[in-house]
Amino acid sequence: MLSRAQTLYDQLVSWRRDFHMYPELGFQETRTAAKVAAVLASLGYRVRTGVGRTGVVAERGEGRPVVALRADMDALPIQETNDVPYASRIPGVMHACGHDAHTAIALGVAALLAEEAFPGTVRFLFQPAEELQDEEGLSGAQRMIQDGAMEGVDFILALHVDPSIPAGDIRLETGPASAGVDTFYATIVGRGGHGASPHKTVDPIYLAGHVILALHGIVSRRIQPTAPAVVTIGTIHGGTVDNVIPETVELRGTIRYKDPAVQEQIHTEIERALGIARTLGGDYRLRIEKGYPPMVNDAGVVNLLRAVATDLLGPEHIRPPEAGMGAEDFGYFSALAPGAMLDLGCRPEDGERPAHSPRFDIDERCLPVGAAILAEAALRLLRGAD
Questions:
Q1: Number of domains the chain contains
Q2: Assessment of whether the complete model's pTM goes beyond 0.85
């Protein structure tokens, strides 16, 4: 399978670079979806467009089992700084998280499986909007699920490029493999006034200082030390003039967790930390938006992917898990059917290009590796091997 995937290298690179040059933000992936649908139709797949707004679902085969493969298609609002022929041609938009590679790899898997006979059904989910939620707070995965993309699915597979390890290596983890994520919005309420008369005010900036210390103490002093957790304040806004004490200070931050009990505790501790504002004479308002759940990798599917990768690449290319608190809406899919996401090494030879940075890029030699692993794993699931 790896040898067959290598013969697709030029096509995979061509697809990936085309998507990279014309990136589209979440729920705006119309050009990307049209190209994906056209390629899949040319390969003989049954194609449905407009799934989850701008997603594409394609199938081949009949009956059970149903093995799904997911690829996200959306880009990020980042201005690319790479000086390469395939750099983004859309100002302020860039594939800075490798979704162009994910989409190209999934098309490669579709091409490989189009030449195979197998029992059951293979289903491709080309997903919009992994990076954001819509006006109702729903991501592309949730919208696709609403439109029936997961109906009847027995297993689901995915991968994500990893710029921290070289092309040809992979990383796999059983259990919670990415964090759940929530966002908190807090307003610290004081009483404004002249900066020369602070005693006549309730200074929300002063209150915020105490609240911030308490928020930063949640993980280190309130959460069990071995439990993965993050509370990060990302924005602070208060005041507009140097000699005026404002009425309010706005805080916004992110919560990361892998255990729902820790999530609940963090919510309680944030409320407790903000209560300091009331103790010191002010007040607060708090809103917490629940986001993506933790992505849980099924042990059986992980074992199968590890066996496939060992057969194709050799055991020396299987790296141990590395703990992290990034978030991924693939967890909505893997909550509905046994599934797993593997990390696919893509570090360029000149060094790591971090995801979500304007310099992000990949070693394109990872493309056939990813396609071969997913295609072989899908076949083994369809044929009942483990």
A1: 2
A2: yes
